[in-house]
Design goal:
The protein has helices at about 1-5, 15-35, 65-80, 95-100, and strands at about 40, 40-50, 55-60, 65. With about 100 residues, the chain is α+β, with helices and mostly antiparallel strands. The protein is elongated, with a radius of gyration of 17 Å.
């Protein structure tokens, strides 16, 4: 969200080749994380002050989507313990996490 806010006043321009390379790198990294059922990762973005280059990294990949996370998703979606029934769960499968992250 911080990056999106900054881009509204200080846009970063990428050439088409750099954009394709960036998209491919993120796509490949996220495909790998999803293949080993990892969720809960984030994109860290910044500008290197010395080189004036955009620096990106995927961070916080600390959690696999295991049976307990699957159960948590089911309980939250069912409304058994309170909260709205059929609300969008905060815990989702690695496949759905990958799609949301890429979007």
């Amino acid at each position: 969200m911080n990056l999106l806010e900054t881009l509204s006043t200080k846009p970063i321009f990428l050439g088409s080749k750099a954009k394709r390379n960036l998209e491919r790198a993120v796509w490949n990294d996220i495909s790998f994380l999803a293949s080993v059922d990892v969720i809960d990762y984030s994109l860290l973005a910044g500008i290197d002050d010395e080189t004036k280059e955009l620096v990106l990294g995927i961070i916080d990949f600390t959690r696999q989507y295991t049976w307990d996370k699957h159960l948590e998703m089911w309980v939250k979606a069912s409304g058994i313990l309170g909260g709205p029934k059929n609300a969008s769960p905060t815990t989702i499968s690695s496949k759905h996490y990958k799609k949301r992250f890429r979007k």
